[in-house]
Specification:
Layout (H helix, E strand, L loop, with lengths): L1 H25 L11 E2 L6 E2 L4 E17 L12 E17 L4 E15 L11 E7 L3 E9 L7 E9 L15 E12 L2 E12 L4 E14 L4 E10 L2 E13 L2 E10 L7 E11 L3
Antiparallel strand pairs: 1-2, 3-4, 3-15, 4-5, 5-6, 5-7, 7-8, 8-9, 9-10, 10-11, 11-12, 12-13, 13-14, 14-15
């Protein structure tokens, strides 16, 4: 009886040691803000092997001086004007962790957008032009070359495809195939986690390769219940300041409140976002 109890006690102690060792291995200081997952295209959101993310969200766009040409809407003039633009968009994002180094994601939307005529516009364009329907439909394959260590940042890349499902629309969706290839680095510190990324993009319609989206991000996990992110994101002459608040209600769910504020005249002036992120098969 004594030997049996001794064996049970020994196995119990061994189990505690193994669990503690595994926990300490995962709880590396530079991973405390983001964990061990692959970075997704959603702000401050990471995914592990076998996890599935579902993120339904709403976004509003307000831009008091959006650039347009009346010709784009079938009204002759090729002059650039600035007019009020508003849009309401409902989106859904889904991501899946294929392996510790590879993830796939897809995003789609429905949108109602309105471009108002500029007071300086003397063309035959009506007071406003409005369209509703399917917005951008896009997918990404994301992979990381190697994970972060005490001395080395994490390096990752992604390939994005935007599908031309709205060839006949002028204001919403994508009219031609678009492709992007991006690369970024991530490094965690005691005061937060930094990410730098930049992409090149190709438009089949324009047959042109150009510098695409770029960003610098700062992520901080304040507690098990709250994280925040600040970022500067741009695409050529459109640059915005992003702030992202995450309220973690459960290990598998958090509320996101996000705001985009335009820093340049061609960027959208104000773009708030609200949604709930669900982790299925959370590791």
């Amino acid at each position: 009886m004594y030997k049996c109890g001794e064996r049970i006690c020994g196995l119990f102690i061994l189990q505690i040691v193994l669990v503690t060792a595994a926990h300490s291995q995962d709880a590396k200081p530079f991973l405390k803000d983001r964990g061990t997952g692959i970075a997704t295209s959603m702000w401050g959101t990471y995914i592990n092997k076998g996890e599935f993310i579902l993120y339904p969200f709403y976004e509003y766009y307000y831009d008091k001086n959006a650039e347009y040409k009346p010709e784009d809407f079938g009204h002759g003039s090729i002059t650039d004007y600035r007019g009020l633009f508003k849009a309401h968009e409902g989106l859904i994002f889904a991501g899946f962790g294929i392996s510790p180094s590879v993830a796939f994601e897809i995003e789609g939307s429905v949108i109602t957008a309105t471009q108002f005529k500029s007071p300086d516009d003397n063309s035959t364009m009506p007071a406003y032009f409005k369209e509703s329907g399917i917005g951008d439909i896009e997918c990404q394959l994301r992979w990381r070359y190697f994970t972060e260590t005490d001395k080395r940042p994490e390096l990752f890349s992604y390939f994005e495809t935007v599908f031309p499902f709205q060839k006949s629309r002028k204001l919403i969706g994508t009219q031609d195939w678009e492709f992007s290839f991006g690369t970024g680095v991530i490094k965690g510190y005691s005061w937060g986690t930094m990410m730098l990324r930049v992409a090149a993009e190709y438009s089949a319609g324009e047959k042109k390769l150009d510098i695409g989206e770029f960003a610098i991000e700062y992520l901080k996990k304040v507690s098990s219940k709250f994280s925040f992110l600040f970022a500067v994101e741009g695409n050529q002459d459109e640059v915005s300041l992003i702030n992202d608040l995450q309220f973690h209600l459960k290990p598998w769910m958090f509320i996101r409140v996000n705001n985009g504020i335009g820093l340049t005249s061609k960027a959208t002036d104000y773009a708030p976002e609200f949604g709930v992120v669900f982790y299925l098969n959370k590791k």
